[in-house]
Design a protein that fits this description.
The protein is α/β, with parallel strands linked by helices and 427 residues long. It contains 8 helices and 16 strands. The chain has helices at 24-34, 102-109, 112-120, 153-167, 227-235, 274-279, 311-316, 389-392; strands spanning 48-50, 72-74, 82-92, 125-137, 178-183, 196-206, 209-217, 288-290, 296-302, 324-328, 333-340, 353-360, 370-373, 401-404, 407-414, 420-426. The strands form 4 sheets. It has a 5-stranded mixed sheet, with helices on both faces. The chain has a 5-stranded mixed sheet with strand order 8-10-11-12-13. Strands 9-16-15-14 form a 4-stranded antiparallel sheet, with no helix packed on it. A hairpin with a 2-residue loop joins strand 14 (401-404) and strand 15 (407-414). It is elongated, with a radius of gyration of 22 Å.
Length: 427
């Protein structure tokens, strides 16, 4: 579940360019020294640009790792829009002969991951896998790298250095927006729980392009459900929403439960929160309502988050396709309200209805940037399938309400098209 995170240049990096061969020996040597600056949890601030659709309820982006502020975008991360090409590189080891073929491992993750993001983004993101069809042999046995969840920096750096040096003669890194390093899952030194995204304190210059992060996969076949969607979410600057227990033995999922794959890749409702979709540009001013400041009551009609958007024609008619209502409570805090239903990525959701959750842009990844509000604190649901039954029935239904932070949210009715009608009252 929990992983480290990364950096990649915005937009295509030299896609379609000719293969560069000059200075390859010098470049490979430079890779060895560049790893001295490696830092798995580093955050490279990078330049920012103004958000596409600023709104009065958009929180300010802070220095917190993977901040959920959206008044600016960190351009060291790629925007998840249009086409992104992903290199799939398969690593074998001299101490093990792979039982699987690269094609079989591709099928473990694709087209499922691309389809997940196509649904989540309403068709805005076209994630295209570009597999290198042969095994690339690492120079050292799998057992020599000490692969584990909390991987030591020295051995992890050696693994990444060896992987990039082994792949570089065969792969033009400048052609790809995302790089997945997929290890032979049957090698004796490979531990599935070590899957994560890794940042570099300084970008590596490879094939004329900056390589800022890589996704390292060690999954057995078949892999954990939505594991690659979770890791790719970090590539798009999304935080981990789980809480890692200090001793590793507690409940990881008490903050968001099944909601959003950045909490648990096993969740019954893995579609990204509406807030995440807003941050990533998949929702815009036509889909987000800001609850006015000051006392008063406002009404909204929320269509299920997973339903297809009807933006373009609807906007031209002066109508809205609202998916998210936001009550900003401070510069870095907000309450988000959205409808979830059995559609799209949420087809296995335990309970549909209107979901409330708090967002904090000043909280770093794994430190509570999102917390789901339990609309039914006295009950649980979906034991045996939910990752956290106390939050599986969190959404409100018609006739139900919840009061918090001086706000009252009431679900008044359900429209014939499936939209949930709500009333928000500020004291």
């Amino acid at each position: 579940m929990g992983k480290l995170e990364p950096h990649i240049p915005e937009g295509p990096a030299g896609r379609g360019g000719t293969r560069r061969t000059a200075g390859r020996a010098h470049r490979i040597a430079a890779i060895s020294t560049a790893f001295l600056a490696f830092a798995g949890m580093s955050l490279i601030a990078g330049p920012v640009r103004t958000a596409l659709a600023a709104a009065p309820c958009a929180l300010a982006r802070t220095g917190a790792h993977h901040s959920l502020g959206m008044d600016t975008w960190n351009t060291s991360y790629p925007r998840p829009e249009s086409r992104l090409d992903a290199a799939l590189l398969f690593l074998s080891f001299p101490d093990s002969r792979p039982f699987s073929t690269p094609a079989e491992l591709v099928a473990d993750h694709f087209p499922a991951t691309s389809e997940f993001f196509s649904r989540a983004s309403y068709g805005a993101l076209d994630l295209r896998p570009r597999p290198h069809g042969e095994w690339i042999e690492m120079p050292a046995p799998s057992t020599s790298y000490g692969i584990e969840r909390d991987w030591g920096e020295e051995r992890r750096g050696a693994y990444l250095r060896d992987a990039i040096r082994a792949a570089d003669p065969r792969v033009d890194f400048s052609r790809y927006d995302i790089v997945y390093l997929i290890a032979d899952p049957d090698a004796p030194g490979v531990l599935p729980d070590a899957t994560k995204v890794v940042n570099f304190a300084e970008p590596l210059r490879v094939d004329g392009a900056d390589l800022r992060r890589v996704v390292t996969l060690f999954e057995q076949s078949p892999p954990d459900r939505n594991v690659l969607a979770h890791e790719t979410g970090h590539v798009f600057d999304l935080p981990d929403l789980y809480e890692r227990p200090r001793d590793g033995k507690g409940d990881w999922d008490s903050r968001v439960g099944d909601w959003d794959m950045m909490g648990s890749q096993f969740g019954l409702a893995p579609d990204p929160f509406g807030w995440h979709k807003w941050k990533l540009g998949w929702l815009d001013e036509r889909n987000v309502e800001c609850v006015p400041e000051g006392p008063g009551t406002t009404r909204y009609s929320l269509r299920p988050l997973g339903a297809a958007l009807d933006n373009r024609a609807g906007w031209a008619r002066g109508t809205r396709d609202t998916r998210l209502a936001v009550v900003r409570t401070s510069e870095t805090h907000a309450l988000a309200i959205e409808a979830r239903g059995r559609i799209g990525n949420d087809r296995d959701v335990c309970r549909d209805g209107v979901l409330l959750y708090r967002v904090r842009s000043d909280r770093a990844s794994t430190h509570g940037p999102v917390e789901v509000v339990d609309g039914h604190p006295a009950t649980t649901a979906c034991h045996g399938t939910s990752v956290h039954p106390p939050l599986a029935d969190a959404p409100l239904r018609v006739g139900e309400s919840h009061t918090l932070d001086g706000l009252r949210v009431e679900v008044t009715s359900r429209a014939s098209d499936g939209a949930w009608e709500i009333k928000v009252t500020r004291e």
